[in-house]
Design goal:
Helices cover 24% and strands 30% of the residues. It is of the alpha+beta class and 387 residues long. Helix 2 crosses helix 4. It starts with a helix and ends in a 6-residue tail after the last helix.
């Protein structure tokens, strides 16, 4: 039985839907050394030369970059050098505790599932092959933490699962499907601290959101909308009928509803000159009022001297919490007074949490933030969508 599972596992280049999700771990980091200890279950170490070794709890593997190959040690004893190594959880109940060499403490991460270690572009690449529902539970815990109402956790479970299945080709060129950063979804290891999250995932098992044409929706969510969500088109230039602006008062008194930032007036002037909105010669005698900005609500562009700059560009350049802000000038400084945290599209997490606290069901919360969507079974969805 074990040999059959190993054969199936390594013959499938890209597993989909109800199988396994390929997640690139520590994406973007230049890993040269990794230590992995079997924390749960039994593993089979599979090497390119056909060699296999069974690993029990407590076994420590050390992976060190050596040119274009990996030097592998087992409990400090050298096994050899290989271009890749695979760890298969024999009963699908295994977990590895991974330490990153040269990284500051704390640097331990525990992941469930199966693993591939290889060398790509002078770095060690780690791919975690995780069961879909286990992955969703881990993402929900990573994104939300441990203290949320069950109905909100159900909402987040459905959104995380939908987002995952709608982006399985995002990192195909890199040898995996999703990364572990917020670029895809935050994935910081297996769910271990929030049993309510696991229960919410189980309660919504295999459920995803689709639009009126039975297509997976863009399951967008963000921390806080500041009282008003935005349409997808205003940020991504890609319309979606189910992602339209929603007035949301639930989030207004929450942690990320408001923010402030101060910078020097000189820095702001230089930035506007660099972006072509300000002529240093023609505007040299302009008063401070020229630099005031009060849009009166959500907007898409910052306007000055009949020229425009996308607000999302300003947000990215200055690492602002959102694109919704006013600017006031006081002597030699400018103050940004902003609302919300995130891109503002789709579900406002802090607003949804408050709705759940008020007794709203997960279906009511979804219907509040998304238009004309419905729950569907991911397995049945394979009949409608090509993967």
């Amino acid at each position: 039985m074990r040999s059959v599972f190993l054969l199936l596992f390594f013959c499938l280049p890209a597993l989909s839907y109800a199988d396994l999700v390929r997640v690139g771990l520590f994406s973007g980091m230049s890993l040269t050394g990794v230590e992995a200890m079997v924390a749960e279950g039994n593993y089979s170490l599979v090497l390119p030369n056909g060699r296999r070794e069974e690993l029990k709890v407590g076994t420590v593997l050390t992976f060190s970059l050596r040119g274009t190959s990996i030097q592998l040690k087992r409990n400090s004893k050298t096994v050899g050098q290989f271009n890749q190594a695979r760890l298969v959880s024999l009963l699908n109940d295994g977990a590895l505790r991974i330490n990153l060499a040269g990284q500051p403490e704390p640097n331990q991460f525990t992941y469930g599932g199966h693993f591939e270690f290889s060398v790509v572009k002078s770095r060690i690449r780690i791919v975690n092959l995780a069961d879909l529902e286990s992955y969703v539970a881990a993402v929900v815990e990573s994104e939300i933490g441990a203290n949320s109402a069950p109905e909100f956790l159900k909402v987040q479970s459905v959104l995380c699962r939908t987002y995952c299945l709608n982006h399985l080709d995002r990192h195909a060129a890199e040898g995996f499907q999703l990364c572990d950063r917020v670029h895809c979804q935050a994935y910081k290891g297996k769910s271990r601290f929030n049993k309510l999250a696991e229960e919410a995932v189980e309660a919504t098992r295999n459920k995803v959101l689709v639009d009126t044409k039975n297509r997976l929706i863009i399951a967008a969510y963000h921390s806080n909308c500041g009282g008003q969500t935005v349409s997808a088109e205003s940020v991504w230039s890609q319309p979606a009928s189910y992602l339209e602006p929603v007035a949301d008062t639930f989030c207004l008194n929450e942690r990320h509803a408001a923010w402030n930032m101060i910078m020097s007036l000189e820095n702001w002037k230089s930035y506007l000159e660099e972006k072509g909105l300000l002529d240093p010669h023609a505007d040299s005698l302009a008063g401070d009022s020229l630099f005031e900005y009060h849009p009166g609500g959500r907007s898409v562009y910052f306007s000055l001297n009949e020229k425009q700059l996308p607000l999302k560009t300003i947000r990215e350049n200055w690492k602002l919490n959102s694109t919704w802000f006013d600017i006031g000038v006081s002597r030699d400084s400018v103050q940004f007074t902003g609302r919300g945290f995130g891109h503002g599209i789709g579900l406002c997490q802090e607003g949804a949490m408050k709705m759940a606290d008020y007794g709203k069901t997960f279906s009511e919360i979804i219907d509040f933030y998304f238009r004309d969507v419905r729950l569907a079974d991911a397995d049945a969805l394979k009949l409608w969508n090509k993967q």
